[in-house]
UniProtKB/TrEMBL annotation:
Organism whose genome encodes this protein: Sphingobium baderi LL03
Keyword Hydrolase: yes
PANTHER family the record matches: IRON-SULFUR PROTEIN NUBPL
UniProt-listed GO biological process terms: iron-sulfur cluster assembly
Source superkingdom: Bacteria
Keyword Hydrolase on entry: yes
Residues the record lists as binding ATP: 82-89
Pfam families in alphabetical order: ParA
Protein name in UniProt: Iron-sulfur cluster carrier protein
Stated role: Binds and transfers iron-sulfur (Fe-S) clusters to target apoproteins. Can hydrolyze ATP.
An annotated Gene Ontology molecular function: ATP binding
Length: 319
């Protein structure tokens, strides 16, 4: 067996069969490495190990590794609302966390270019994404959900002066990033039914959309507008989530319903979409969200509420 043959045999174990047979010409070893499904770190570690091993083969002074990957189709789940402030970002963050805890390979994109909040919700403000081959590498949040937000890329407020095409480009960069083994991408949409929504729908073709609304009639009218936009674009409606549904007393936990109960569920039925569940208005949710500690990471009553909604989404995805 030549030195090259024994290195080729070692390569198989080292890369789990991902490497092609190495060739050596003029002292340069070349080989292809299939990197589909690997994270950037795993990839780098394998490439470094190959290099190290290759340079011990007599006659090899340089190594070239061509990384190949079929780009995996990401399943995009958009979280949208007709108007701002209804808790879309809170729901997106907690759904991502709950889905991860259910065993899904999930990533999170903050498409709210003008008012990004995911970096704070997921305690990743201090991180800056790297780029490789013109693709961004998502940052890791403390709960282990890879994520990207405009807040990781520009100073707060800088994107406010951007026009349509720049926004659409920025969104494209966040979504077409190096997501590694992520299969499901939760995308926190900006509020309303404007350019970013259209660009998102046309270019990135979500597999489905979750609509968030509060119990007030006004918010539901806005929700209907959002529903219509996605419906017209043939994006499947996964269902409606009612946020701030009733007020959970921080002392006794009792939930009261200043805006009445059951409105969102009835509205969902009327619009022909599933009702995914309700999250109460609770000081603890706001406090923990502000502190970058998503309630879905725990198992208390709020964690369970987010989990129940995530389970319904998981069911939808598995269909
Ligand atoms: N169920 C809840 N209970 C208590 N506070 C909540 C709840 N949901 C959201 N909030 C709080 O309400 C505020 C708005 O929520 P969030 O940012 O998630 O809304 P949004 O719809 O994404 O808003 P925007 O459109 O401005 O991005 C935040 O301070 C958040 O902590």
């Amino acid at each position: 067996m030549t030195d090259l043959d024994s290195f080729a045999a070692r390569l198989k174990t080292l890369t789990g069969g991902r490497a092609s047979t190495p060739r050596v010409k003029d002292g340069v070893m070349t080989l292809a490495l299939e990197v589909g499904g690997l994270t950037a770190d795993q990839r780098d570690a394998i490439a470094a190990a190959i290099r190290e091993g290759a340079l011990t083969v007599p006659g090899v002074s340089d190594v070239r590794i061509a990384m190949t990957a079929e780009r995996k189709e990401l399943r995009i789940i958009a979280v949208a609302s007709g108007k701002g402030g209804v808790g879309k970002s809170t729901l997106s963050a907690n759904l991502a966390v709950a889905l991860k805890r259910l065993g899904h390979r999930v990533g999170l994109v903050d498409a709210d270019i003008y008012g990004p909040s995911q970096a704070r919700l997921m305690a990743s403000e201090d991180q800056k994404p790297q780029a490789r081959d013109k693709h961004l590498i998502p940052v890791q949040s403390p709960v282990g959900v890879p994520m990207l937000s405009m807040a990781h890329l520009v100073e707060p407020g800088r994107a406010l002066a951007w026009r349509g095409p720049m926004v659409s480009n920025a969104l494209g960069q966040l979504i077409d990033a190096e997501w590694g083994d992520v299969e499901t991408l939760i995308v926190d949409m900006p509020p309303g039914t404007g350019d970013i929504q259209l660009s998102m729908i046309q270019k990135h073709k979500p597999a489905g959309v979750v609509i968030v609304s509060t119990p007030q009639d006004l918010a539901l009218i806005d929700a209907t507008r959002a529903v219509n936009l996605f419906e017209q674009a043939h994006v499947p409606l996964i269902g409606l989530v009612e946020n701030m549904a009733g007020y959970a007393c921080p002392h006794c936990g009792e939930v009261s319903d200043p805006f009445g109960a059951g409105g969102a569920e009835a509205a969902a039925k009327e619009m022909g979409m599933a009702f995914l569940g309700r999250i109460p208005l609770a000081i603890d949710i706001r406090r923990r969200s502000d502190a970058g500690d998503p309630p879905a990471a725990g198992d208390d009553v709020h964690g369970q509420a987010f989990r129940a909604i995530a389970e319904k989404i998981a069911e939808y995805v598995a269909r």
